[in-house]
Design a protein that fits this description.
heterodimer; A: 314 residues; alpha/beta; Rossmann fold; Alpha-Beta Plaits; 4-stranded antiparallel beta sheet; 11 helices; 27% strand; B: 288 residues; mainly alpha
Chain lengths: 314, 288
């Protein structure tokens, strides 16, 4: 039995905008750590995020965040911080005033609000720019001030819609490090992004969304294992690739063996990676071929995304 | 691939209502909104509206206009009653309240910043009260000032000493306070109405114009329908009754002890509707 007070739970959730499908029949249970929502534009990522923050109401089903229903904002947002994609702010405020104002709306007293504001600005490296008007900020700074606002009240769940958009490479790296630190502290981070290698790098698990449906979820390697209609590609670097090709071709599970262009390795496509690795162990143990390295080529997010989303027609 | 967590029943304990927290939150919302109301870019129209009745009276101040009625201070009460009812109450206060209160939520939707409130740990009812109070204080300050300045500008430049007697030894001060009270009640009633209109209509101008027509045609309505308007109760409180013309359907004015509580009760009901609406509201800026 899963403890719902430590999970974000979607229970058969659908959302329709009139007759247009937002998301359909979503069942998810997300625990602590970094979960990335991945999918093409219009797939339903932002809809899922808006649903889990109560900005949208499900047409059907029920959502709870750490046990709190999403239609109770007064309880929900003591636990949740949401950095939306909306690039707009109340007019005339400095970064510091913006964060402090909404901490006061949250019910913080002035002293606590001031301390939490400084802390949040520090975390996103905006302490120096805190007293400048938000209207004068660059896109990256606006992104960071939104992030600061989302984390200022120390939520247990942080929901971030495309949080790396507009950030330069240096700040991206710092921001990812901040996400990792927060996840290590036990927070739930739900991040949507279309930059797959960054998602791959920082996520504990992914949720692939396409056309309003969750097409896969879990650890990226686990998800890859479930994609059985695309044989896994493995690159073996060795001294005798042609000899290795002849040996592995005898196996039923190997559907393709192709020499690498530099003739120093072999590409294998296999329907059963576990059996193939056993075979490879036997070859290495026999001592006929020197194997330098073995690396799966397509068990990263980018490949899985390509297989799943293209097979969905997205 | 997906999994669903089994639900563990959570024991809900009844706790005392957090009035202190709510008051703090109302204060924070009020401060944010009042600054926006007075200093935001939308406030320019408000200042122009508030000045609208003051400008003609200020232009008339240096000289007494021709015409018998302008030469006799005893007729000024009637002049002000007509001026107040036609320009201040029905135009400035009405459209001023429409602008302030419809923009409390609609303005944030247009600016795409309402979600910051919705993403705060605040009851939506508290948000409605905080915003409504900010609109109320803004409208009361602006339009009460307009009412007071207009009355003083009408009397003092033309009959300085008689006006002093009228205000300090006669019925003037009572009339001034009554007109100011009517302005305040108008802000309370129209404010609540326009707050709700801003929540229910994407283009609130149309319902505002419909209400404006309804309020202007009030004199033609049968007595029962007259009671379904704000202006009827406000007129009932006026210190100087003004004739509504030969086609007016005459109805008994509602006594103040009924008119004032009625307006307040209707306001509370309308605010409850606003709270219900805001509680179930979604943020979909794209469709707004």
């Amino acid at each position: 039995m899963t403890d719902v007070t430590n999970q974000i739970v979607f229970d058969d959730v659908s959302k329709f905008y009139g007759e247009i499908l937002g998301v359909n029949r979503v069942n998810l249970s997300l625990g602590p750590g970094i979960t990335s929502l991945v999918g093409p534009n219009g797939a339903g990522k932002s809809t899922l995020m808006n649903l889990m923050t109560g900005l949208l109401r499900p047409t059907r089903g029920r959502i709870t965040v750490l046990g709190t229903p999403t239609d109770q904002p007064e309880q929900l947002f003591s636990k949740v911080g949401y950095c939306t994609q909306f690039d707009s702010f109340p007019r005339g405020l400095t970064g510091r005033e913006f964060i402090r104002a909404f901490l006061l709306v949250n019910g913080f007293d002035r002293k606590r609000a001031e301390a939490a504001t400084t802390n949040a600005l520090e975390q996103v490296n905006l302490l120096d720019a805190g007293d400048r008007k938000v209207a004068a900020y660059s896109k990256g700074m606006r992104q960071r001030i939104r992030l600061a606002q989302a984390i200022a009240h120390k939520p247990a769940v942080l929901i971030l819609d495309e949080p790396l958009n507009g950030l330069d490479p240096m700040v991206r790296a710092e921001t990812i490090a901040l996400f990792r630190k927060l996840a290590a502290e036990g927070l739930h981070l739900i991040i949507s992004s279309h930059i797959l290698h960054e998602v791959d790098m920082m996520s504990d698990r992914v949720v692939l969304v396409n056309n309003g449906y969750v097409v896969a979820e879990g650890n990226i390697h686990g998800v890859r294992d479930e994609v059985t209609d695309h044989p896994m590609q493995i690159l073996i670097r060795c001294d005798q690739p042609a000899k290795l090709a002849a040996q592995v071709f005898a196996e039923d599970n190997v559907v393709e063996a192709r020499l690498h262009n530099d003739r120093g390795g072999l590409f294998i496509r296999t329907r059963d990676a576990d059996s193939f690795y056993l075979l490879l162990n036997r070859v290495v143990a026999a001592g006929e071929i020197n194997v330098e390295s073995v690396a799966p080529v397509d068990d990263d997010l980018s490949a899985v995304y390509g297989y799943l989303i293209s097979s969905e027609g997205g | 691939m997906s999994s669903t967590a089994e639900q563990i029943p959570v024991k809900i304990q009844k706790e005392p209502l957090p009035w202190g927290l709510w008051l703090r939150q109302i204060g924070a919302i009020f401060r944010l909104e009042i600054e926006k109301n007075f200093l935001g870019r939308r406030s320019i129209l408000l200042y122009l509206l508030a000045l609208l009745p003051i400008i003609p009276l200020a232009l008339l101040a240096p000289f007494t206009p021709p015409g018998e009625e302008w030469q006799d201070i005893s007729r000024y009460s009637m002049i002000f009653a007509i001026f107040y009812g036609g320009l201040v109450l029905r135009t400035v206060v009405f459209f001023g309240c429409a602008w302030i209160f419809m923009n409390l939520f609609r303005g944030d939707i247009v600016d795409r910043s309402l979600h910051f409130y919705f993403l705060s740990s605040v009851r939506r009812e508290v948000l409605v009260i905080g915003k409504y109070l900010s609109g109320l204080v803004t409208s009361i300050i602006l339009f009460s000032a307009t009412t007071i300045i207009c009355m003083l500008l009408l009397y003092f430049p033309h009959f300085p000493s008689e006006s002093s007697r009228f205000f300090f030894d006669g019925p003037g001060m009572g009339q001034l306070l009554t007109y100011t009270s009517i302005t305040i009640l108008a802000c309370i009633g129209y404010g609540a109405f326009f707050l709700v209109v801003g929540l229910f209509f994407r283009n609130p101008i149309i319902p505002a114009i419909v209400l404006y027509g309804w309020e202007w045609l009030n004199f033609l309505l049968p007595p029962l329908l007259k009671k379904v308007s704000v202006i009827h109760y406000l007129h009932s409180l006026a210190p100087i009754p003004v004739s509504e013309g030969p086609f007016a359907v005459v109805a008994e004015p509602t006594p103040a002890w009924i008119a004032v509580p009625s307006l307040v009760i209707v306001t509370i009901i309308v605010l409850v509707i606003a709270s219900y609406r805001i509680r179930h509201m979604e943020i979909r800026y794209g469709s707004d």
